[in-house]
Amino acid sequence: MNDTIAAVSTPEGRGGISIVRISGPDTLQIIQKLFIPRSFSSSKLRPWKVYCGYFQDPDTSIIQDEILVTFFKGPQSYTGEDAAEFSCHGSPFITQSLLEIVIRMGARPADPGEFTRRAFENGKIDLSQAEAVAMITASESENARRAALNMLQGGLARPVRNIRDSITRLRVILEIDLDFPEEAITIDSQSILQTFLEAEIQLQNLVDAGSAGDRLRQCRQIVISGKVNAGKSSLFNQLTGRDRAIVSTEEGTTRDLLEAMSEWHGCRLTLVDTAGIRESHSAAETEAVKRSLAALETADAIIYVIDGANPDVGLLETTIKLVRESAIVIFWNKTDICPPDQSLVEQIQTDPRISGFLQGSARFGWGIVELRTLLRDLLDQSNPDIRENPILMMTIRQRNALEQSLALIRDAGKMMRDGIEPECIVPSLRSIDHHLGSILGDTLPPDILGEIFAGFCIGK
Does 5-122 carry CATH code 3.30.1360.120? Predict the structure, then answer.
């Protein structure tokens, strides 16, 4: 890490601004070569302040753009080294020109995740926090962002470090007794068992928190179903806020599943518009109905649309029998055309298999807000509450390390209860130390670290 690296940290394409980031021992020297401040010498730049000026090509003295520069003095910087960020106008040409000039001045292109890797290797963050940076960048919902931020703030590192410290203290005592039996160290079996029990509870809590985080990653699927011409596509457009589906009085216009990603109240969702279910002699429509039925079987929730102008609950019974776990919400559509059939309404509302009932008009947007709220409440019942419970967005590697540590600590406790000498559990304690250390990054070889950071974005 004796060289200086540079990369564009903002997404490709045009935008309001772009940011070029550099880190390494030549940072200040590069700033002085290409930055012309408006009112003073660049040699007087103070750390952690934003300065406005121009960047020029030192070889031609041609001004390229008006920019902002922020200099971060190591070790109080993200990477632990001297670092800087150049904010230029978001033209791809300008951004690339700035990066090329920075590289020509002595920097080299950064590898994926190299800024964060330097932060890790300089002791600014541990590996779990470094991986949380990538999780935040990749988060696709509010709840996922919060869980990843919990990781970045030490939600995994702190308890792992505490467990590891308690196991290490116990292992040291046992190893001393093993290596120097003449010291006659008193081994308190009950105290050891208590340490194991506390570690087991804490590890189980972390595994559970990781499972909750896994559920946040899952994209919940809401399927809109019903008979042909019931208004499913109109409802789909209302819920997505876009005219994605073709709306027509002609029956059977939807011939394939139409999906749209959305986020409601921090939960990532996929809305699916399906073909109307009916018997057909058309091969294409028959296949469309087959796909619609398959989508119902995997849905987290189903919005069953009833055509209020021609209500028929016969198909609803078929849908209820097909899906056993999914919540079913009834949307009685077309109330702008005619009032609901109260006898059918009462029949549906009293059915214990129905999770909710609403009336409205997909054409005019009546009842859409209430439908969103009802679906949110239904999904929240199976969604982990990030405000009340510890939720962590773990990688598979982190999860495996915790599960292996949990299995080892349980085995060690069983060995103690079976009367096996405490010294015999030392190998298990060493393995636990290795697994927990791999979460923090202490016990991973450089090639594995390289693979982890290779999955990061360039510029992060």
Answer: yes
Model pTM score: 0.70
Lowest average pLDDT, out of 90-99, 185-194, 418-427, goes to 185-194
Indicate whether 343 pLDDT > 70.
yes
The amino acid that residue 128 corresponds to is: S
The CATH-assigned architecture of domain 129-214+394-454 is Up-down Bundle (1.20)
CA-based angle 44:49:54, to the nearest 5?
A: 65
CATH 1.20.120.430 residue window(s) in the chain = 129-214+394-454
In whole angstroms, give the CA distance from residue 18 to residue 16: 7
- In the chain, the amino acid numbered 31 is I
Instruction: Report the chain's mean pLDDT, rounded to a whole number.
Output: 82
Q: DSSP character for 138?
A: H
User: Residue 366 has what DSSP assignment?
Assistant: B
Are 294 and 313 spatial neighbours (Cβ–Cβ below 8 Å)?
no
Q: Are strands 267-273 and 220-226 parallel, antiparallel or unpaired?
A: parallel
- Distance between CA atoms of residues 254 and 292, nearest Å: 10
Report how far residue 38's alpha carbon sits from residue 284's, in angstroms, rounded to the nearest whole number: 68
Q: Is 215 helix (H, G, I), strand (E, B) or coil?
A: helix
* Lookup: tokens for 170: 């116990």
Phi, psi of 62, deg, nearest 5 = -85, 130
Beta carbons within 10 angstroms of residue 18's beta carbon: 26
Q: Which residue has the tokens 């390289």?
A: 450
Helix 396-417 to helix 189-217 angle, to the nearest 10 degrees?
A: 150
Cβ pair 75, 122 in contact under 8 A: yes
Q: For 144-249, where are the E strands, in sequence order?
A: 220-226
Q: Give span(s): CATH 3.30.1360.120, the chain.
A: 5-122
pLDDT confidence of 410, banded at 50, 70, 90? very high
| CA–CA gap between residue 271 and residue 223 (Å, rounded) | 6
pLDDT higher than 60, residue 285: no
Contact between 170 and 130 (Cβ < 8 Å): no
Give 443: exposed, middle or buried? Use CB within 10 Å, 0-12, 13-18, 19+: middle
First to last CA, the chain: 16
Residue 237, exposed/middle/buried by CB under 10 A (0-12, 13-18, 19+)? Answer: buried
- 422 membership: H or E segment, kind and range: none
Q: Characterize the bridge pairing of strands 267-273 and 258-264.
A: antiparallel
> Considering the domain 220-380 in this protein, what is its CATH number?
3.40.50.300
How many DSSP H helices and E strands does the chain contain? 15, 13
Query: How many Cα atoms within 13 Å fall on the side-chain side of residue 7?
Result: 20
- pLDDT greater than 50 at residue 249: no
